[in-house]
Sequence to fold (166 residues):
Amino acid sequence: MVKNTDIREIKKSAVELISDNWALVTAGKKDSFNTMTVSWGGLGEIWGKDAAFIFIRPQRHTLKFIDSEEMFTICFFKEEYKKALTFCGRNSGRDVDKVKETGLTPVFLDDAVYFDEACIVLKCRKMARYDLSPDGFLDSDIESNYSNGDYHKMFIAEIVETLVTD
Fold:
């Protein structure tokens, strides 16, 4: 059963949720959406709002959906879904039907898409987008993450709704 809660009621570490467990970021509408796995990001507060920070490389198919929509979701899953998340991270929605291949069940809200199997869903409203570039790197080691020059787009989004399953 899915219920609304306050983000502050989530007792798991944001580092564990994002870096260790990974998440699916999904944007679009019922007739056209895409999802991708993320393991870089953060949760916190900015501009007086609960916020999520995600990073998407320019070649990712999901970027066009996030750019064109006001809302997106971040879905966290139990360990048993790691194989599905691996698939969604290694394959492009341009080439495969990720829902069909993983068996995940999309749930369509008026302005967002999430997955029924998720144990935590953050519905997010975009507030800002920044293009990362080497001139902003203070640690020269960061550049090693960008051998192809495909610098991430960073999105800062307000967490407008938090859903959890029992």
Q: What stands out?
A: The longest helix spans residues 82-90.
